[in-house]
Specification:
By secondary structure, the chain is mainly alpha-helical. It has two domains: 2-99, no CATH class; 190-339, no CATH class. Helix content is 49%, strand content 6%. Helix 4 crosses helix 5 (169-182).
């Protein structure tokens, strides 16, 4: 393998092996695994192309930088490393060719911005949220986009979304970035698939939670009748074998069961988007009423407190929704008994 022994493919960051099929860029000489080259579609060592340079092995690059007396700036955290450094002394990122003095924007406080790729702390703070919200990495992909707490997502700062969400920030913020920056409304929420009305109340979406609770109870009545006839619930006097086995009742049971399934699937697909729109609306209302000023930060502390309090989760609302749902089911059974 010669000059590529111990070097890394800049597309996958994996070291080359003797058995690897290696191809090089015809313009700058940057080596790739053949599958990485085919996946990217072109050379991604853009800084080298702009400089008109040619790829060099790591030891030659380090020797060249040492001779010039120039430090190596980490592309992740901005730390200035010694010219002969192989890894960033702050965050550990390999100081490969593409990281040399690359013009990048860094956080105001680099001492606190060394969060690894794909991670974000619950406090959000000055850490950056990295990722590809579109989930695509085709030809010409420029790598992960970078977001911090001041990134604007459809008129609201990402830091405010993080404060509002509270628990499970990373999962929800990834969806929020995709909805706000790239459009689309569909995603997948398993909790909303199984128990949509309870999840909406848990996330303080009381209006849509109420709608789903009432629809769920109403569509469940035929199923309740069948369960009562089978002895799983208090008996309903008019539920007879002839009624349960009649063609009309079977049609109603199938229709309501199908409607209930569709209702749950709709919740599973759009729950995250509805949560995003609810969060955006509440945050914007709080910010507008707080008199927040970007120049003086006046009202910011009060707004942050209100946003945190307005969001998060509510166990009392969750428990209350379970109690109301069960109460309505029992009431439906009781009323049907009284009517017959």
């Amino acid at each position: 393998m010669g000059k590529y022994d111990g070097q890394k493919c800049i597309a996958c960051n994996e070291s080359f092996k003797d058995t690897d099929d290696i191809v090089v860029c015809p313009d700058c000489g940057t080596p790739y695994h053949r599958e990485c080259w085919l996946r990217e579609g072109s050379c991604i060592n853009e800084s080298l192309h702009l400089e008109g340079g040619f790829w060099k092995p790591e030891h030659e690059r380090a020797a060249s930088a040492s001779a010039d007396g120039e430090g190596i700036r980490c592309a992740r955290c901005g730390h200035e490393n010694p010219p002969d450094g192989l890894f960033c002394k702050r965050c550990g990122l390999p100081l490969t060719m593409e990281t040399l003095n690359e013009p990048r924007e860094f956080n105001d406080n680099p001492e606190q911005s060394s969060t690894p790729r794909g991670n974000t702390q619950s406090s959000f703070g000055n850490n950056m949220f990295e990722g590809n919200p579109t989930g695509s990495a085709g030809f010409g992909a420029q790598g992960p986009m970078r977001f911090d707490q001041n990134s604007d997502i459809d008129g609201v700062k990402l830091g405010d979304y993080a404060r509002y969400v509270g628990k499970n920030q990373f999962s929800f913020l990834a969806h929020f970035i995709r909805f706000g920056k790239f459009g689309g409304k569909a995603s997948l929420n398993f909790c909303a698939l199984l128990f949509p009305q309870y999840w909406f109340f848990y996330r303080k979406m009381n209006l849509i939670g109420t709608i789903y609770l009432l629809l769920t109870v109403a569509l469940s009545i035929p199923t309740i009748m069948v369960m009562s006839f089978a002895g799983y619930l208090p008996s309903i006097s008019f539920v007879t074998e002839s009624l349960v086995k009649s063609s009309n009742f079977s049609m109603i049971l199938n229709a309501t069961s199908s409607a209930l399934m569709v209702l749950q699937c709709v919740a599973a697909i759009f729950a995250n988007y509805w949560y995003y729109k609810t969060a955006r609306k509440k945050i914007m209302t709080i910010r507008e009423s707080s008199g927040f000023s970007e120049d003086t930060s006046e009202g910011d502390e009060a707004a942050v407190t209100q946003i945190t309090k307005a969001g998060g989760v509510s166990f009392p609302a969750f428990l209350l929704s379970v109690l109301i749902s069960n109460t309505l089911v029992i009431a439906a059974v009781f009323i049907m008994n009284k009517l017959m």
